[in-house]
Backbone:
């Protein structure tokens, strides 16, 4: 004989139903697995930097932001490899 341990209330268009503890455990495991998969997706930040100033061996690229703009320096060779762009997009992902 099977005992019913849990009750799932009905939602629109569904009938109320009783489920066993094993079935509830399977549902929760599936939910936890999907949640972990979604959280495993890396969060990224994309920043657009504009070429600002040439120095003897580099180009300075700076974010167009008033408060604490991000600034990076690329060698002239690196900028040339990129096709001498006026702007670059920097994508940051936690590792």
Residues:
């Amino acid at each position: 004989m099977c005992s019913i341990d849990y009750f799932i209330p009905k939602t629109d268009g569904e009938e109320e139903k009783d489920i066993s503890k094993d079935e509830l455990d399977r549902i929760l495991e599936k939910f936890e697995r999907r949640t972990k998969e979604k959280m495993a997706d890396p969060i990224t930040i994309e920043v657009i930097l504009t070429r600002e100033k040439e120095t003897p061996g580099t180009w300075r690229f700076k974010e167009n932001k008033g408060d604490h703009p991000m600034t990076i320096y690329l060698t002239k060779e690196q900028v040339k490899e990129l096709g001498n762009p006026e702007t670059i997009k920097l994508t940051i992902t936690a590792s």
User: Anything to note?
Assistant: Confidence is low (pLDDT under 50) at residues 1-5. The first strand starts at residue 6 and ends at 8.
